[in-house]
Amino acid sequence: MGWAPPAALVGCGWLLTAGAATWAFLASTPTDRVFVGVLALALLTASAFGTICRPRLHADATGITVRALTGRRHYSWDQVTIRVRETRRLGLTGTSLELDANPDLMVLTRLDLGEDPYAAADVLHALRR
Fold it and tell me: Which residue segment(s) compose the domain that 113 sits in?
């Protein structure tokens, strides 16, 4: 079973990157070029991360594999503690899936998983058994 950022969201990020790069190229003032150039670089970074790190989390009978820019890391089930944490900031509640494999702590949100962290945790707990 695998989880990744939604493909439509990553594709939208690439379209916005192309639009921002075009806007930076066509901007008339140096200030506009710098501002929109920084925006284009931020969008490029986010879109590349969403593309390169697919799937972000993979689970099977042997354990979980988490993918990042530095590569893949596999953890067996006995190394991993699975928690869902809710945090409240500025009146909004955010939910994240925490995978604690000493000394590594991976925090994955709905954006990383493309699914509700509670649903992903349920599947992980079922696979762990």
Answer: 57-128
